[in-house]
Design a protein that fits this description.
With 275 residues, the chain is an alpha/beta fold. It has a single domain, classed as Divalent-metal-dependent TIM barrel enzymes (TIM Barrel, Alpha-Beta Barrel), CATH 3.20.20.150. Helices cover 38% and strands 16% of the residues. It is built from 9 helices and 12 strands. It has helices at 14-23, 46-58, 79-95, 116-130, 155-163, 177-183, 190-200, 235-243, 260-273, and strands spanning 3-8, 30-32, 65-67, 103-106, 109-110, 138-142, 150-151, 171-176, 206-211, 213-214, 225-226, 251-254. α1 runs parallel beside α2. The termini are close together. Bound molecules: fe (iii) ion (2 copies) and zinc ion. Residues 176, 178-179, 223, 225 line the site of zinc ion (ZN).
């Protein structure tokens, strides 16, 4: 089996997200550690975070997949933005310890004209500064669509970043189905995509899936998510993806254009496909 859920808002607190997930038929979820478009972070109430952990245990949840702010560009060409991003990253690693043992997913960054070769070491350096001894979080690099100057549009680019990190025990990958499709990986043959992932990165690094259909054709480099089964990837591919032996036990996060009722229906639909 897989765990499945969607993005929830932390504005009402952590335990509230767990209960909200249950209402939607979910047994994992994603949330932003702070305002996704800004930097301000609310204090975490340790008792509330602990209550969520207990709730997840009681209700057999899978691992959570927290998401870094979209604006966090660790390899910006502007030193102040780069510093701001690194400070957020370091702070988020501490904040994640209120919910021990979960995942923290981030977009590797955009090189904004500096070039891939020049910026990959900068991203790895940021990881080396944020990852600390004894931490329980696993940091996930997200596979990207290759829109603009995004880094992480191929498994090779992610592998190059991982190779430059010191503490690889705390590093994994989150595969976004819309992004890899837009980057040119045909997920209709999902096992072949996983074979390639295994050859380049190693399948053990695959920790979580962002499950999204795409509004655009293969290799479009656009990054526009569509509801499951209503885009260019299509229902048949997702039936194979969720039943692949190599992704069982992993959290699947929906980032599709839906309201609560839509997510509830989409989660139920995907569950009905589980073999
Ligand atoms: Fe993302
Ligand atoms: Fe994603
Ligand atoms: Zn996306």
């Amino acid at each position: 089996m897989i765990y499945i859920g969607n993005h929830l808002s932390s504005s009402k607190g952590y335990l509230a997200m767990g209960k909200e997930a249950t209402k939607l038929g979910a047994d994992t979820f994603a949330f932003f550690t702070r305002n996704p478009r800004g930097g301000q972070a609310k204090d975490i109430d340790p008792a509330d975070a602990g209550a969520l952990m207990a709730y997840m245990e009681e209700n057999s949840f899978g691992k959570l997949v927290a998401h870094a702010p979209y604006t966090m560009n660790l390899c910006s060409d502007k030193p102040d933005i780069r510093r701001f991003a690194l400070d957020m990253f370091i702070d988020d690693m501490k904040r994640m310890e209120y919910t021990p043992g979960q995942y923290y997913n981030f977009h590797p960054g955009s090189h904004v004209g500096q070039g891939v070769e020049a910026t990959i070491p900068v991203i790895a350096d940021a990881l080396n500064k944020a990852v600390f001894d004894g931490m329980t979080t696993t940091v996930l690099l997200e596979t990207m669509a290759g829109k603009g100057s995004e880094i992480g549009r191929s498994f090779e680019e992610l592998k190059q970043i991982i190779d430059l990190t010191d503490d690889k025990d705390h590093i994994g990958v989150c595969l976004d189905t819309c992004h890899v499709w837009d980057a040119g990986y045909d997920v209709n043959d999902f096992e072949k995509v996983l074979d390639e992932f295994d050859d380049v990165i190693g399948i053990d690094r695959l920790k979580a899936i962002h499950i999204n259909d795409s509004m655009n054709p293969l290799a479009s480099h656009k990054d526009r998510h569509e509801k499951i089964g209503q885009g260019h990837i299509g229902e048949e591919a997702f039936k194979k993806i969720i039943n692949s032996p190599r992704v069982q036990g992993k959290p699947f996060i929906l980032e599709t254009p839906n309201d609560d009722a839509g997510y509830k229906a989409e989660i139920a639909m995907i569950r009905s496909w589980m073999k």
